[in-house]
Design a protein that fits this description.
Keywords: Signal. There is one protein chain. By secondary structure, the chain is mainly β. The protein has one domain. It contains one helix and eight strands; from the N terminus they run H-E-E-E-E-E-E-E-E. An eight-stranded antiparallel beta barrel has the order 1-2-3-4-5-6-7-8. Strand 6 and strand 7 form a beta hairpin. About 9% of the residues have low confidence.
Length: 128
């Protein structure tokens, strides 16, 4: 009977660890010199964890679009990205971004962005 209890505890621990290592999806807005929307995913099942997403401006037609990427470090209860890169629609680097995403709590993610064209601002979002 003791082995059955040990097995149950082991299964519970595996599921708990898996929940902590699950990818998380995010979406939100950015404001400042340009305005737009973004969405992406934190991939935390490998080392290093990283964020990869898409962005689109909403303050002009046609909109500017691109991607953004950054390696994430787990610091306390947050995934922190210090040196993310913003890419244009052709995949060329066009700016930097930084910020933090809650690792365990359902709270707001936020940070700053800047483009090489001197446009800059802030971003925020939520997991979904």
């Amino acid at each position: 009977m003791k082995n059955k209890g040990t097995l149950i505890v082991a299964v519970v621990l595996v599921f708990a660890a898996t929940a902590l290592m699950a990818n998380s999806n995010w979406q939100g807005t950015f404001t400042g010199d340009r305005i737009g929307v973004w969405k992406g995913t934190i991939y935390d099942g490998q080392e290093p964890a990283y964020y990869e997403g898409e962005w689109k401006t909403t303050d002009q037609e046609p909109p500017d679009i691109g991607t953004w990427y950054g390696e994430a470090e787990l610091v306390g209860r947050y995934y922190v990205i210090d040196a993310g890169i913003v890419y244009d629609e052709d995949g060329e680097p066009m700016g930097r971004w930084s910020g933090r995403f809650p690792a365990y709590d359902d709270t707001e993610a936020s940070g700053r962005w800047s483009w090489d064209s001197t446009a800059s601002g802030t971003w925020s979002g939520w997991s979904y």
